[in-house]
Write a structure and sequence with these properties.
Layout (H helix, E strand, L loop, with lengths): L1 H12 L6 E10 L11 E2 L1 E14 L4 E6 L7 E5 L13 H12 L8 E7 L9 H16 L6 H16 L6 H8 L4 E6 L5 E5 L5 E7 L7 H21 L12 H7 L6 H25 L3 H17 L6 H12 L3 E7 L6 E7 L3 H16 L4 E5 L6 E2 L3
Helix pairs in contact: 2-3, 2-4, 3-4, 3-5, 4-5, 6-8, 8-9, 10-11
Bound molecules: alpha-D-galactopyranose.
C-alpha cells in the first residue's frame, strides 16, 4: 500500500525524488469515558490502523495537502504566513491548526511541505481520526524541521490545536493515546497529572471487537461542549460550598456522596455523578485487568455504558442497540460505547470462539432496530505515531 501512496504522491505533486513516510494510529478507549477533561483516568490504546502520510519538504512557505479520503476537495493550499481557520479548507484545518500551534510556541518552521494523506480509520466514528491527523502532522514537523520536542509536548500542542483552532473543547485522551500508544499495551493515564503507565493486555482467548454504528454524528461537538460545561458548573457549585477541588476527578464516590446535595440542578448532578463514578470504575477496572480478572473488567465496562446512557446521556438508540445486542450474546465479556458518543463506535470484549456469531447476530439485531448496517473490526493494539517504513 505504501508504494501506491508514494506513486500517487509523485503523480499529484509532479515530483520524482525522495519522500518521507509517516503513520499515526486511531485509538479506542476501553474504560474511563468523559473523564479526561474532568481530571480523571482514561484507559485507551492505539490501534493498528490509522492515517498515513507521504511528505516532501518545500523551499518556499507553501503547504499543499491532498487527502485520498476527500479526493473531491482536491489539493488544499495555504501559506505559512496566513495560518487561519478557513471553513473551505475542510479537513486541512486540522494539520493547519497544528502548524499554527507549533509556530505560536516558537518552534522554528520556516517552509511548507507537500503531503498526501490516507486514512483507514472511519471518519467521525469516535476512533479519533482527527487526533490521528493532528499527531501525524506534529511528527512530520518534528522530523522535517529537526525540532527538539518530545511526544508529550507534541500531544499537548495537538490538543491546543483542537481546542483553539478547531473549537472543540476536548480533553487530552485522544492525542495522548495516538502519540504515546504502545503495541499490545493499554495506557492508564491520569489526565490531571499526565502520569501514565503501560498495562500489558493478555486477553488470551478473547478479542477486542469494535462496532461502528455508522451513524453520522451531527451536532456532537456542541453537545460535547455542553457536557463539559455542566461538569465545570458542578465544580463551581461545590467550590462555592467549601469543597476545594479543581476537577470532579479528585473526588471518590464516597466523598462525592457526602457533598452532592449542594448541586441542586438535576442535570448537573447527573453529569457529575457520571464523571465521578466513571473515574472510580476506570481505576477499579484496571486493577482487575492487572489481576487477569477479565470478567470483572467486562462487568465494569457494562456499567460504564449504563452510566453514559442514563447519567451522561451521550448514547442514543444506535449505540444502545449495539450494546444491548452485544450483552445478549454468549461469549460477550463486556460491551460499551467508546469515545465521545452520540453515534460512533462501541467496544466489546468477546471470546474468540464466539466472535463470528457475535458479528452476525449483533449486526442483524442492530439492522432490525435502526435500519442501519454496523461495521465490525477486530482491534489489534498498535504503536503510537512516527516514521513509517515498510
Ligand atoms: C472525545 C474527546 C476526548 C474524550 C472523549 C470522551 O474523544 O476528544 O478528549 O473526552 O471524547 O471520553
Amino acid at each position: 500500500m505504501l508504494e501506491d501512496l508514494i506513486k500517487e504522491f509523485k503523480e499529484i505533486f509532479k515530483y520524482d525524488g525522495e519522500v518521507e513516510t509517516f503513520f499515526s494510529p486511531g485509538r479506542v478507549n476501553l474504560i474511563g469515558e468523559h473523564t479526561d477533561y474532568n481530571g480523571g483516568f482514561v484507559f485507551p490504546c492505539a490501534l493498528d490502523f490509522g492515517t498515513y502520510a507521504v511528505v516532501k519538504k518545500r523551499e518556499d512557505k507553501v503547504f499543499r495537502m491532498y487527502s485520498k479520503n476527500f479526493k473531491i476537495l482536491g489539493t488544499i493550499e495555504f501559506n505559512l504566513d496566513n495560518l487561519v481557520y478557513n471553513k473551505k479548507d475542510n479537513w486541512a484545518n486540522y494539520p493547519k491548526g497544528v502548524v499554527k500551534t507549533f509556530l505560536d510556541k516558537a518552534y522554528k518552521i520556516d517552509s511548507g511541505f507537500d503531503v498526501l494523506f490516507y486514512g483507514n480509520i472511519p471518519n467521525g466514528a469516535g476512533l479519533s481520526s482527527s487526533a490521528s491527523i493532528e499527531v501525524l502532522t506534529a511528527v512530520i514537523l518534528k522530523d522535517l524541521f529537526k525540532l527538539d520536542v518530545d511526544m508529550v509536548e507534541m500531544v499537548k500542542m495537538c490538543q491546543v490545536a483542537e481546542n483553539k483552532f478547531i473549537g472543540v473543547n476536548s480533553g487530552i485522551m485522544d492525542q495522548f493515546a495516538v502519540g504515546m500508544g504502545k503495541k499490545d499495551h493499554v495506557i492508564l493515564l491520569d489526565c490531571n497529572t499526565l502520569k501514565f503507565e503501560y498495562v500489558p493486555v493478555k486477553l488470551k482467548n478473547m478479542s477486542i471487537v469494535i462496532a461502528n454504528t455508522n451513524k453520522k454524528r451531527g451536532l456532537a461537538d456542541s453537545k460535547y461542549n455542553e457536557r463539559r460545561s455542566s461538569c465545570e458548573e458542578a465544580v463551581k457549585v461545590l467550590n462555592d460550598n467549601g469543597v476545594n477541588i479543581k476537577y470532579l476527578g479528585e473526588l471518590t464516590v464516597a466523598e462525592f456522596d457526602k457533598v452532592k446535595h449542594f448541586i441542586t440542578d438535576e442535570e448537573q448532578l447527573k453529569r457529575a455523578t457520571h464523571a465521578v463514578s466513571e473515574n472510580e470504575r476506570a481505576k477499579v477496572a484496571v486493577e482487575f485487568l492487572k489481576k487477569d480478572d477479565i470478567a470483572e473488567f467486562g462487568r465494569l465496562m457494562n456499567q460504564s455504558h449504563i452510566s453514559l446512557r442514563d447519567d451522561y446521556e451521550v448514547t442514543g438508540i444506535e449505540l444502545d442497540s449495539l450494546v444491548e445486542a452485544a450483552w445478549e450474546e454468549e461469549g460477550t465479556v463486556g460491551s460499551r460505547m467508546t469515545g465521545a458518543g452520540f453515534g460512533g463506535c462501541t467496544v466489546s470484549i468477546v471470546e474468540n470462539d464466539h466472535v463470528e456469531n457475535f458479528i452476525k447476530n449483533v449486526g442483524k439485531k442492530y439492522k432490525e432496530k435502526t435500519g442501519l448496517r454496523a461495521t465490525f473490526y477486530i482491534a489489534n493494539i498498535g504503536d503510537g505515531a512516527g516514521r513509517y517504513v515498510k
